[in-house]
Design brief:
The protein is built from eleven helices and 15 strands. The strands form two sheets. It has an eight-stranded parallel β-sheet. Strands 1, 2, 3, 4, 5, 6 and 7 form a seven-stranded mixed β-sheet that branches. The protein starts with a strand and ends with a helix.
């Protein structure tokens, strides 16, 4: 049995590799090559179990996640991957942040303006750095605003990322409306239950990623953005309608009836205009993709 730490995962799978792996996995998902059982949820989302089986190779992944929003990190996970050879057990926390960043990289590459240079990150938790890494992997970003409720945490994360990307200007902020006002790409990675901004605060041309709200009671995005965006893309409609508060609200209220799945968008790329949205709650094929890259 191969056992991999968080450091092993990071050394073996850089963000560019993760993005390619996750992109291929969603193509496989669209082709019908995955069996994805519904996510099991215990304790009102305190414990999650996800799995995926890749039919062509006979390989499978299972991930157990513990979520405690009052702890750091809030997400602790373990991934088990089974193939034809030895079994792999890996740190699931690093895989989760890496694959969540990677799917945002795939979506941003599809929907964000090709000339995007300004990124706003909302959130300073464990998921936040990989959101930035992913967008920087697919767009030539020169300026990043890191917005959060805590000025100290926003400043600390800005400095950490500036050390990693010295050619990019990082600016901390606690004013979300100001931070999104001139953004080309926005990444939301928070656990809020109320929308982070109104559509009126956004530029007319912007791509918004949202990965933080993972329960029906949570919402990072406002209804008016989902109602007016030219494209609202999700990783998987079934999963989004089970777990995404903003998607559930938009569909049930009738303001959004046309959700585009990521796999379908990869098969037939859309032509984005104006404002676009990608909402991810995460599906098992993403974990499979990173685990397969590690095997």
């Amino acid at each position: 049995m191969k056992v991999l730490s968080a450091e092993d995962v990071r050394r073996a799978v850089p963000m560019s590799t993760a993005i390619d792996a996750v992109r291929d996995a969603f193509r496989e998902l669209a082709a019908g090559n995955f069996v994805l059982p519904p996510r099991q949820i215990f304790g009102d989302g305190a414990v999650l179990v996800m799995s995926a089986y890749h039919t062509p190779t006979g390989t499978a992944v299972v991930k157990k996640i513990g979520i405690a929003l009052d702890q750091v990190p809030a997400i602790r996970a373990t991934v088990i991957w089974t193939g034809a050879g030895e079994q792999l057990v890996a740190d699931g926390t690093s895989i989760t942040t890496l694959r969540t960043g990677a799917v945002v990289g795939v979506a941003t590459d599809l929907l964000a303006p090709a000339d995007a240079t300004r990124l706003t990150l909302i959130g300073t938790g464990a998921q936040a750095p990989d959101q930035v890494r992913a967008v920087l992997a697919v767009r030539r970003i020169t300026a990043v605003t890191v917005a959060g409720r805590s000025a100290d945490r926003a400043a600390m994360l800005s400095q950490r990322l500036a050390d990693e990307f010295p050619d990019v200007k990082f600016t901390p902020s606690v004013d979300i409306d100001d931070a999104v006002a001139d953004a080309d790409v926005i990444c939301c990675a928070t656990s809020t239950s109320t929308p982070l901004f109104s559509a009126d605060a956004l530029p007319e041309r912007v791509h918004v990623n949202a990965i933080g709200a993972f329960r029906p009671s949570m919402r990072e995005l406002p209804r008016d953005l989902l109602a007016t965006a030219s494209i609202v893309m999700v990783d998987q409609t079934e999963a989004a309608m089970e777990e995404s508060g903003e998607i559930i609200d938009a569909v049930r209220s009738g303001v959004r009836t046309d959700l585009l799945e990521l796999g379908a968008a990869l098969a037939s790329p859309p032509t984005p205009t104006g404002r676009t949205v990608f909402k991810s709650v995460g599906v098992g094929c993403q974990d499979w993709a990173i685990a397969a890259a590690l095997s």
